[in-house]
Amino acid sequence: MPEAPPTDEGWFVLHDFRTVDWDAWRDAPERERERAVREGTEYLSRHEEIADADEGDSAVFSVIGHKADLLVVHFRPTLDDLSRAERQFERTAFAGFTEQPTSYVSVTEISGYTSPDYFEDPESVDEGLRRYMEGKKTPEIPEDEYVSFYPMSKRRGEEHNWYDLSFEERADLMATHAETGKEYAGKIKQVIASSVGFDDYEWGVTLFSDDPTHIKDIVYDMRFDEVSSKYGEFGQFYVGRRFPPTDLGAYLAGDGVPTSEHGEGGNSHPESTHGGDHPHGNGDAHGEAHGHAHGDAAHGGSENGHGGHGGGSAHGDSPHGEGAGANAGDGVEDDIRAELADLNIYAGQPHGEDVYATVLYSEADSDELFEEVTGLRANFDHYETHVKTAVYEAHGGDRSAVVSIWETQSAAETAAGFLSELPEIVSRAGEESGFGTMGMFYTVKPEHHGDFVDTFGTVGALLDEMEGHQDTDLMMNVEDENDMFISSQWDARENAMEFFRSEEFRETVQWGRDVLADRPRHVFLA
Questions:
Q1: CA-to-CA distance for 20 and 29, rounded, in angstroms?
Q2: Per DSSP, what are the bridge partners of residue 399?
Q3: Among 127, 242, 442, 464, which residue is least crowded by beta carbons within 10 Å?
Q4: In DSSP terms, which residues pair with 472 in a beta bridge?
């Protein structure tokens, strides 16, 4: 009997499709329509704000074509939560003007084709992979404008039966499928949820993009993969566009939604309602790339569980936690900057001159890491909010760092999820215990490169003797050895501040004014 991959489930998903009885809507008295809009808007807003559950996400989309008018998507921790959300809609006056032509029930999952270690001993896997997998189980609904939903199954025909293939054959096919998906990193993100035992097909696939042609292109390209051409069976496709709940009245009036894009004011674009600065300009940076055969693989296709880099994963967004920029600018950091200013030490503007940084550390070979990052960076460069992504190597150390800089916090945060798929990620800056500080972008004048490295060695020896010091690395850009940053970890903030107050640090700062090409920017990870 072929081996079944292990699975681990997360949030439950409801795709609630609705058609509007337009004749009844036109014939209804104005006061009834006003009540329906008010109650419908309140319902949708309350559920987008997750007022009905402890966790989850919801969104509403207009559906194009005859199969439905509206799609409401809910992610919730339990099936009971979904049931309650569905029934609460029926209590609104707006529901009286709608019918439910279809719906789809599923649950997010990860499986063990490429990451068996996660299932055997989740606590032993590296932090990047663990957080990636957890993010797949509890995804956020991306804020991209366009959505496409379709159910699918793996064929069990007389000639081609997916479930008769060996585990190894399925895993190989999945890895090939992921390679196609990499081409869509930054363009497509998706949530794959299992519906085995819940609905008519085996998976529900939801694709998100700011450009609807990207959705068409990825589905078309993947039809040529053997996973789809021989073993894929698909249900009906639905396509729509997201709009904020406050635009429900405009939608029912036949106006263009989101209304903010049509000069009508008053209501927000969905990105705005979600705090939405994104690397796309209008979307976020996960760029999940439809890389797996819909629900059968968890991570990407390489033996170490980090294949499919640059968006090869098929399981949803990667809503990993905050990068460096996410922690910057809070009250703690403001206090630190003020204290350093009193010491006549420049600490940059919050977030490093109003940019946001996410930094992940890897134990992979820097050449291997750079090759992976190069492809990912090419996709990031499509977005105006992307400032820089580069690989840095510790001078005399055994780890590398990937630094990604964006103009917006949302972009930096979501890029962090993307980057966590890179090889042998061991931690994200700010995850370590204690207090972290990074002096970012020490751009050294070329003629003083050696002097700077020597001085760091002297300062590093001093740091090793200081109370509360854990570890400090001088990280150099593999493409430009004069572009550096210093990553330093301390037991507590006060330990680091003792160093900043020291005469040795003051002298180093003064000396640095002569050898640096510009002022250093500091980012603190308190």
A1: 16
A2: none
A3: 464
A4: 488
Structure tokens at 400: 């590398």
Instruction: Please state, in angstroms and as integers, the Cα–Cα distance from residue 57 to each residue in 72, 81, 84, 105, 463, following that order.
Output: 11, 11, 14, 15, 46
φ, ψ for residue 30, nearest 5 deg? -55, -40
Ramachandran angles phi, psi of 358, nearest 5°: -125, 135
State phi, psi for 330 to the nearest 5 degrees. -80, 180
* Contacts for 229 with CB less than 8 Å, ≥ 6 apart: 223
358 or 273, higher pLDDT = 358
**Catalytic annotation on 231?**
no
Q: How far apart are CA 433 and CA 391, in angstroms?
A: 23
Give 227-278 pLDDT, tens digit per residue: 999 999 999 999 999 999 999 999 999 999 998 775 444 333 333 333 333 3
| pLDDT exceeds 80 at position 311 | no
Q: How many CA atoms lie within 13 A of 498 on its CB side?
A: 14
Q: Could you read off the pLDDT of 391-431 as tens digits, one per residue?
A: 999 887 678 989 888 877 777 777 877 788 888 887 766 55
User: Model pTM greater than 0.70?
Assistant: no
| CA of residue 360 relative to chain centroid, distance | 14
The sign of the torsion formed by the CA atoms of 192, 196, 201, 202 equals positive
Helix (H, G, I), strand (E, B) or coil at 430: coil
The position carrying tokens 């990825």 is: 218
Contacts of 265 (CB under 8 A, 6+ apart): 259
Please identify which residue in the block is written with the tokens 């992940």: 360
Return all residues near 507 (Cβ < 8 A) that are at least 6 apart: none
List phi, psi (to 5°) of 436: -115, 145
Task: Pick the catalytic residue from 150, 356, 361, 392.
Answer: 150
Which tens digits make up the pLDDT trace of 430-449?
555 567 776 667 888 999 89
DSSP structural state of residue 385: T
Confidence of residue 492 (pLDDT cuts 50, 70, 90): confident
Q: What are phi and psi of 67, to 5 degrees?
A: -75, -25
Contact 438, 327 (CB under 8 A): no
Residue 257 near residue 263, CB atoms below 8 Å? no
Q: Could you tell me if 239 and 233 are in contact, meaning their C-beta atoms sit under 8 angstroms apart?
A: no
Structure tokens at 330: 């809070």
130 SS3 class: helix
In this predicted structure, what is the pLDDT of residue 275?
A: 36
Instruction: Read off the pLDDT of each residue in 157-180 and give the average, rounded to a whole number.
Output: 89
Angle at 17 between CA 16 and CA 20, to 5 degrees: 130
Q: Specify which residues 272 forms β-bridges with.
A: none
Extract the tokens encoding 515: 């050898």
Residue with tokens 């207009």: 62
In three-state secondary structure terms, 208 is strand
Cβ burial, residue 488 (10 Å; 0-12/13-18/19+) = buried
**How does DSSP classify residue 110?**
E
Size of the chain, expressed as the number of residues it contains: 526
Q: Distance between CA atoms of 231 and 453, rounded to whole angstroms?
A: 57
